[in-house]
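Chapter review: from sequence to fold.
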Amino acid sequence: MWQTPQHRTRSSTSPARGSGGARLRRSNGADSTGRGLDKTIAFTRMHSLVAPQRPGRVLGGRRNRPANSPPMRLWLAAFVVLLLGACAPSAPAGLVEVHDERGFTVRYPQRWTQVRRDDAVWFVPAGADRIPDIAEFIVVVTRASAGRLDDPAIRRTVFELLPVQGVSGFQQDTRTTTETLWYKFEVTGASGGQEWASVGVLVSGAARYHVVVCAKPLLKWRDGQKQCDEVVRRFQPGDLNH
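The C-alpha cell string follows.
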C-alpha cells in the first residue's frame, strides 16, 4: 500500500512492539550506525596510542645509553674538566714574598739568594756570584726623583739600568692612578755573554720611583715568562710621594 510522507514519518519514528507489549529491538539504519560509530571510536583510540619505542641496540651485551642520559652527561663533564686541565698553563714555581725596608713588596723563587748593591736589591739563583753578569734574575731599584717621571725619562732610566738590546713592549699600565704612574715594559738584553728576555714595570711617584725587572735566559723564557709575569703582577710599591 502506498503511504504518504506523513505516514512514513510516523511509522519510522514510532516504536514497534511485539505481541506481548515488549519493545522490539530496532533493526533500522540508526541502530546499525550506532554500532559502526562505536567500532570507529575503538579503532581510532587503539591506533592513537603512542607506539612502543624500539629498544636501543646492544653492543657487547650492553644496551646503548642515550647521549643525554645522566651517566653520559657525567662522563662528558669529567672529560671536559680533564681536557681543560691538560690544556691549562702550568702554575709558576713556588714564590716567597718579602717586604723590603725600602717599602716595596716583591715575590721571588724559593732558595734564591738576596743581594744588595747600592740602590738595587737582586734576587738570583743560589750560587750565582757574578752579579750583574747573569741572565736569570729579579732586580728592584729604588731612587729619588723630583716629581713623577715622564715617558722619555722612564725609557732612559730603563735603558741606563740594564744592557738592553731590544724592546718588544713599552706602555702605561692599567694600575696608573692620579698619584702613581705605572709603566710596563718588555725588553731583551745580554749579560755575561748570555742573552735574556725580561718583563718589568716602573712605578713613579712625586718623590721616588721603583723599577722591578724579572729576566730569564732566552732558552728558558717560554716557561719562565709565567713566573716573571707573576712577579711583576704581584709587585707592590712603597710610599713614593713623601
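Two observations follow directly from the output. The domain at 95-234 is CATH 3.40.1000.10 (Protein Transport Mog1p; Chain A). Residues 29-48 form the longest helix (20 residues).
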